[in-house]
């Protein structure tokens, strides 16, 4: 089974093509292709409520390129999801319609709760009976999910993202609402472990030089790396630290969001699994197509 997932974020757009095989009772997901294109739709939307004509043209070209790859890999099924920037833009649905009509690629514009649900599908294997605060920071929004005994007890999406924070357009009340939500659902006795997902925390984790098989970051280490990054100019982060241009400017604001949520939850350490929305989309596609295959088998019998 060959599947493709496209994640249209506020800071970048990602395509992943995966081959799913079953051998000796084990399901294996093998990545065949992964592309990340730095098209920052959020910078338009969070200021003007619209995707600019320039970015609209680039976006349509990118969707054409992604559709060609999806066709060339002869995928069995695909799913394209757009998050904060497109769902808040006045012309986002018009652009999605244009892509459907001209290219044949269907875009699902999902809300924050749907986005969180998709990511949660990829997190299930990391959960145990402990209390967890899952923090997913995108360019336009932050999704929080709270788990206790492997059950989700609360979830909420906030208009706090790395691009918004960089542009200093997050209202102080929104920060307060996020902290209040955490305080409402997490008690000091819970001893919460955080789970961080998103490209910025993955890069912070990489910069921490983790030992093999060690997946945790302490809050102290995140603060150290934030200070380390802040000691360089934007140009130095690009040229000396070899960060992508669209990562070098948002990584510090993003780290502030993770730290703010962790401190509100009195969480001292964070698990950083290599999962995101695209992995959740793969899980949805796999389960959907597995049901199809099983239904076909039962008809043949």
Automatic annotation (TrEMBL):
Residues annotated as domain Ppx/GppA phosphatase N-terminal: 31-282
Q: Which domain of life is it from?
A: Bacteria
Q: Which SUPFAM superfamilies match?
A: Actin-like ATPase domain
Question: Which Gene3D superfamilies does the entry link to?
Answer: 3.30.420.40, Exopolyphosphatase. Domain 2
**InterPro entries from the entry?**
ATPase_NBD, GppA/Ppx_hydrolase, Ppx_GppA_N
Q: Which residues form a coiled coil?
A: none
Which is one GO molecular function term here? pyrophosphatase activity
Q: Which CDD domains match?
A: ASKHA_NBD_PPX_GppA
Q: Where is the signal peptide?
A: none
Name of protein: Exopolyphosphatase
Q: Which organism is it from?
A: Mongoliitalea lutea
Q: Which gene encodes it?
A: ppx
């Amino acid at each position: 089974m060959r599947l493709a997932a496209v994640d249209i974020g506020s800071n970048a757009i990602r395509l992943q093509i995966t081959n799913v095989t079953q051998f000796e009772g084990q399901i294996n997901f093998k990545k065949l292709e992964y592309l990340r294109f730095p098209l920052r739709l959020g910078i338009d939307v969070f200021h003007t409520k619209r995707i600019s004509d320039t970015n609209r043209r680039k976006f349509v070209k990118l969707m054409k390129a992604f559709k060609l790859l999806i066709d060339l890999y002869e995928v069995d099924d695909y799913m394209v999801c757009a998050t904060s920037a497109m769902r808040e833009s006045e012309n986002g649905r018009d652009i999605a319609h244009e892509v459907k009509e001209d290219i044949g690629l269907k875009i699902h514009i999902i809300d924050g709760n749907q986005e969180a649900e998709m990511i949660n599908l990829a997190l299930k294997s990391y959960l145990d009976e402990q209390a967890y605060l899952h923090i997913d920071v995108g360019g336009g929004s932050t999704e929080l999910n709270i788990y206790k005994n492997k059950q989700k007890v609360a979830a909420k999406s906030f208009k706090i993202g790395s691009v918004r924070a960089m542009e200093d357009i997050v209202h102080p009340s929104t920060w307060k609402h996020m902290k209040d939500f955490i305080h409402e659902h997490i008690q000091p006795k819970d001893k919460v472990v955080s789970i961080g997902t998103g490209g910025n925390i993955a890069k912070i984790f990489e910069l921490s030089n983790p030992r093999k098989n060690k997946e945790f970051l302490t809050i102290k280490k995140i603060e150290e790396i934030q200070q380390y990054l802040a000691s360089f100019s934007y140009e130095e982060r690009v040229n000396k630290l070899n960060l992508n241009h669209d990562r070098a400017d948002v990584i510090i604001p993003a780290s502030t969001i993770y730290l703010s949520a962790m401190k509100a939850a009195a969480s001292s350490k964070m698990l950083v699994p290599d999962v995101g929305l695209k992995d959740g989309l793969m899980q949805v596609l796999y389960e959907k197509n597995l049901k199809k295959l099983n239904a076909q088998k039962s008809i043949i019998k």
